[in-house]
Amino acid sequence: MASPAVHCYQHPQRLGIGICVECRQVVCAECSTQFEGINRCARCLAKMAPKKSARSAFHEWGALSVAGALGALGLLFGGAVLVAGWIRP
User: Fold this and answer.
1) Which of 52, 63, 70, 81 is paired with 87 by a 20 to 30 Å CA distance?
2) CA-angle at 9, arms to 6 and 10, nearest 5°
């Protein structure tokens, strides 16, 4: 007995080729993406992708800015000490 045709949950006009291991939905060839050897739908694959928030990007730039400012102050202070040492006899 032949099994009934199962269609993609996103594209009802297309035959499904597999099932997403995350959400268990039937997917067609266009919707299926093999990642780490396992079929997943685009929606579940997008959930797995690491997301970089605006806050974390701000903190990275903030830390770099503070480090740069401290380095510049150190250079200025060190330069002033050297110049002061050269001026005094």
Assistant:
1) 70
2) 130
Average pLDDT over all residues of the chain: 79
pLDDT at 74 over 90: no
Tokens of 55: 């806050």
Confidence label for 89 from pLDDT (cuts 50, 70 and 90): low
The three-state DSSP-derived secondary structure of the chain is CCCCCCECCCCCCCECCEECCCCCCEECCCCEEEECCEEEEHHHHHHHCCCCCHHHHHHHHHHHHHHHHHHHHHHHHHHHHHHHHHHCC
The tokens 């093999």 sit on which residue? 34
pTM of the model: 0.49
Q: Which amino acid is at 50?
A: P
Amino acid sitting at position 46: A
